[in-house]
Amino acid sequence: MTTWTTTGRIAAAGVELDGDLSLPDNAGGLVLFAHGSGSSRRSPRNRAVAEALNRQGLATLLVDLLTGPEDQADAGDRRLRFDIGLLADRLIGIIDWLRWRPATAALPIGLFGASTGAAAALVAAAARPGAVRAVVSRGGRPDLAGPAAAQVVAPTLLIVGERDTEVRELNEQACGALRAPTELRIIPAATHLFEEPGTLEQVAEQAGRWFGDHLLPARRAPATGARR
User: Fold this and answer.
1) Are 25 and 2 spatial neighbours (Cβ–Cβ below 8 Å)?
2) Which end of the chain is more exposed for a tag (fewer CB within 10 A), N or C?
3) CA 117, 158, 21: angle at the middle one, nearest 5?
4) Fold of the domain built from segment(s) 3-219
């Protein structure tokens, strides 16, 4: 399978953002990544997950949700990375951009959010229920999505590390707020960044199955109800 990768600028929510779009031949769906606190589209963890998704026929879009000057300012006060409304507005703008772009307009969209990016992904999913078909959160903060979490209709997978105690508790609580079909998966022995050997590969496998089931029609299984 050949994957074509292009780097360009995306107009979203009144700003231009840098993004890397990887489009496999005959892609059946697309996953938009929402990076977490202090991260960027160059995150080696998200790139590893994106490459795994590409291999199973899913396009991926990794985008810097902050502009260059904003990223520099955020490095000092860490304020913008927790501005969920701003991040979500930009994700929504990118989703709209994807729906107008000929190469991606017909592809069902999934959102992969990490840390604070997961909260922004849930807000965006609530705002674009017709476009977003699935959400995956890696070590995310779904609690920061606020009331929007209850409005999400896309099937949602929460992945957390067993040793990421605080975030694990927040995700367990979030299962009660999310009304969409939701599952919580705990990766044994993993901490917040999934740096332990083999743990990130487990994240990629779980995410791949979730997006495969909900974005790729040939693999979509009959609904069996949510497990919480």
Assistant:
1) yes
2) N
3) 45
4) Rossmann fold (3.40.50)
- Residue 200 belongs to what H/E stretch? helix 199-215
Structure tokens at 186: 């705990």
Please tell me whether residue 148 adopts helix, strand or coil conformation: helix
Q: What letter represents residue 18's amino acid?
A: D
- The structure's pTM equals 0.90
Backbone angles phi, psi at 78, to 5 degrees: 55, 30
Cα 207–121–129 angle (5° rounding)? 95
First to last CA, the chain: 36
Q: Which residues contact 36 (CB under 8 A, 6 or more apart)?
A: 81, 113, 114, 115, 116, 117, 118, 139, 140
Residue 111 CA to residue 106 CA, distance in Å, equals: 16
> What are the boundaries of each domain within the chain?
3-219
Q: How many CB atoms lie within 10 A of CB 19?
A: 21
For 77, the enclosing helix (H) or strand (E) is: helix 68-77
Q: Is the dihedral of CA 63, 69, 70, 73 positive or negative?
A: positive
Do residues 135 and 155 make contact, with C-beta atoms less than 8 angstroms apart? yes
pLDDT digits (tens, 9 = 90+) for 23-62: 998 899 999 999 866 566 777 888 999 999 999 999 999 9
Which class for 9: exposed (0-12), middle (13-18), buried (19 or more C-beta within 10 A)? exposed
Is pLDDT at 9 greater than 50 in this prediction? yes
Query: Closest by alpha carbon to 112, among 200, 208, 223, 199?
Result: 208
